[in-house]
Amino acid sequence: MRLAIIPGDGIGKEVTAAAVSVLGAVGDAFGRKFELEQLPWSADYYLESGVTMPAGGYDLLRQFDAIFIGALGDPRVPDNRHARDILLHTRFELDLFVNYRPVRLLDARLCPLKDRGPDDVNFVVFRENTEGLYVGVGGRFKAGTDDEIAIQEEVNTYKGVHRIVRHAFEFAHSRGLTRVCMADKSNAMTDGHALWQRVFREVAASYPAITPTHYYIDALAMYMVLDPAQFQVIVTNNLFGDIITDLGATFQGGLGMAASGNLHPGRTSMFEPVHGSAPKFAGRNIANPIGAIGSMALLLETLGLVEEAAAVDRAVLDAVRERQVTTDIGGTLGTREAAQAIAGAIRRHSG
Ligand code: NAD
Ligand code: IPM
Ligand code: MN
């Protein structure tokens, strides 16, 4: 297995090192060899070279079995152009149309919602990942003046909406789930989101065993807090999916806990924690590595290494239960030490 590793910025570097150390333990425990290539693309790299992503970068990425990325974002690059090229444009160029973001609570004590436990918080969000408001269509006219006009268009295509909605139903079907909820804002965005309405109805019709439900995105946010247990699969657009998965992360114990995959089934996919580079935490060995480690587990699972992924998930669950974790979720360990605890458990269980 050949993996591209992009640590990126801030705590991205630390949580990536943590996830890679856990991958090392998986390799030892299961007798597997992972060939890793570290790619330095980051704010530092951009500020030194003037290049966000070198020519041929996307083609290079396509040659790996999978990509792992920490986080991108640095106050010295206020327009975030390196993140656009390295993160967003990899999603576009590699056509990673599925942003798969499980929301799974491991331990009731981590949930900020009153009287909710692991049975109540266990759903997945499928975020459309290649269009919507992220496409960069638009521009500014008379920028910096009182006459400034700023336009940023939302793009919804039949093909784009159809494939993510279909993916959500296929996922539900393959796991024996019975509900898929679509969230849009078709009451206000009466053109773009009417397309979501039509496609959702159309796709749902071919899955008679699955009950399709719909909420406007504002109501969905409310119901996520009030009654998260009703959700099994949520499918939504790029921006709404971004927002509700930070909310979902808080149900899991905070941003440090949430994992994700940017997928194109059958092609090179990219895995990353949901959180960003958290500049305040950078370099202090305090970031929670579980979101990154969980993303590595998703990578393994996607590559067909199902037992390996399950071993990582089990070790994470044990670490959480035994409080062998970072301070944000009630432990006393640093980033490195928390990863070592998980790596140690993987080696012990299999040895
Ligand atoms: P952020 O996710 O970096 O951090 C917000 C807060 O969440 C932190 O201050 C911290 O309290 C908490 N947090 C995040 N990760 C944590 C972890 N691993 N352990 C413990 N606590 C954690 O979001 P932000 O502050 O809005 O953004 C910072 C930078 O990261 C920006 O430049 C932003 O654009 C970028 N960003 C990048 C990605 C990505 O690369 N995928 C995702 C989100 C934000
Ligand atoms: C995420 C992040 C990115 C996004 C940012 C860094 C552009 O918030 O992956 O959730 O909005 O997609
Ligand atoms: Mn986000």
Q: What's the helix count?
A: 11
Helix content: 40-55%
What is the number of beta strands? Answer: 12
| Proportion of residues in β-strands | 15-25%
Model description:
The radius of gyration is 20 Å and the shape is globular. The strands form two sheets. It has a ten-stranded mixed β-sheet, with helices on both faces. A two-stranded antiparallel sheet has the order 6-7. 41% of the residues lie in helices and 19% in strands. The longest helix is centred in the first third of the chain and has 20 residues. It is α/β, with parallel strands linked by helices and 351 residues long. The mean pLDDT is 98. It binds nicotinamide-adenine-dinucleotide, 3-isopropylmalic acid and manganese (II) ion.
What's the topology here?
Elements lengths: L1 E7 L2 H20 L4 E4 L4 H7 L7 H6 L3 E6 L9 H13 L4 E7 L17 E7 L9 E4 L7 E4 L5 H17 L4 E6 L7 H13 L6 E6 H10 L6 E4 L1 H14 L7 E5 L5 E5 L16 H13 L3 H16 L13 H16 L1
Parallel strand pairs: 1-2, 1-3, 3-12, 5-10, 8-9, 8-10
Antiparallel strand pairs: 4-5, 4-11, 6-7, 11-12
This protein binds nicotinamide-adenine-dinucleotide (NAD), 3-isopropylmalic acid and manganese (II) ion.
The site of manganese (II) ion has 2 residues, from helix 8.
